[in-house]
Amino acid sequence: MIDMVYCVDNPKKWHEGNMKGNSSHYSGLKYLGPKFIASFQENSGARVYFNTLVPMEGVVIKYGVISSKDLITDLLEWSDLYIAGRLHKPVEIIKKTTSSELQTALQLNLQSAVHAALLILPETFSEYEFYHTICNLSYAGDFRMTFGENKNKVEHIVKPQIDGFRNLYRPFLKSLTDYVDFPVLTEGGGLCSQDTCPLAKLHHLNQLPRWPQKALTRFWNRGNFKQDTEDVLRGIAYDPDCSAVVEQCINEIVWKSSIRQSLKGLLTAGIFKSVKYSGQKIVKMLK
């Protein structure tokens, strides 16, 4: 099934037009009107509204709708790491945006993924492990990976698209030569290595988006907020378990958003489509 995402400026207007031409794509929620649909999209789950199992020109697609402002927030802050996580992988952009704000957010999202992956990875790693870690940022915490998704999903995404990942992240790695040595960029192979001293880790921690930093602060202070974010990040940079702490806090963001969005999907898809879609996922997982 092909996944598509529409980024729109006015969700109400978009759904109103789409419901007139493609009413069958929607569940019974359509009877509550486009205003409700738009509100439900923007105020629940990961702020995406999905229509699934939609036949189109001989293929079956699933398409989501997200507002420009919500997409930019997720890209910059990783508030849900939902669409932002999908955009860590090579994707086909059908229509390029003319919004400089969105263009900047798309680039910063990729930059954030590099810093997060380097914090999780050890001192030496392979090129494949680097891309696998990036791709896994939005899957490791997804509750569906425990049951309902193919356990090798990340591997199946990364291995066939190494060149796509390479093209996507080459510009950011070239700007981090003081922190990481990526031989494949110049020599075409070899193990990668990075500086894992506390100052290097602190640099990466300072480049993380707002929500992971908030999660790290909550974790470090165990909910009491005894230290501010600056002090917390410095403390984590010197912690031997820094990589595990970062991974756990990112996983928590994904865990929460994946549960909320899945519950939302029961309503946006309808019971019949939800059961059919879940069944297909389980069959695929068991193959």
Automatic annotation (TrEMBL):
<keyword id="KW-0496">Mitochondrion</keyword>
<dbReference type="Pfam" id="PF09139">
    <property type="entry name" value="Tam41_Mmp37"/>
</dbReference>
<keyword id="KW-0472">Membrane</keyword>
<keyword id="KW-0444">Lipid biosynthesis</keyword>
<keyword id="KW-0808">Transferase</keyword>
<keyword id="KW-1208">Phospholipid metabolism</keyword>
<keyword id="KW-0460">Magnesium</keyword>
<dbReference type="GO" id="GO:0016779">
    <property type="term" value="F:nucleotidyltransferase activity"/>
</dbReference>
<protein>
    <recommendedName>
        <fullName>Phosphatidate cytidylyltransferase, mitochondrial</fullName>
        <ecNumber>2.7.7.41</ecNumber>
    </recommendedName>
</protein>
<comment type="pathway">
    <text>Lipid metabolism.</text>
</comment>
<comment type="similarity">
    <text>Belongs to the TAM41 family.</text>
</comment>
<dbReference type="InterPro" id="IPR015222">
    <property type="entry name" value="Tam41"/>
</dbReference>
<keyword id="KW-0548">Nucleotidyltransferase</keyword>
<keyword id="KW-0443">Lipid metabolism</keyword>
<keyword id="KW-0594">Phospholipid biosynthesis</keyword>
<comment type="pathway">
    <text>Phospholipid metabolism; CDP-diacylglycerol biosynthesis; CDP-diacylglycerol from sn-glycerol 3-phosphate: step 3/3.</text>
</comment>
<keyword id="KW-0999">Mitochondrion inner membrane</keyword>
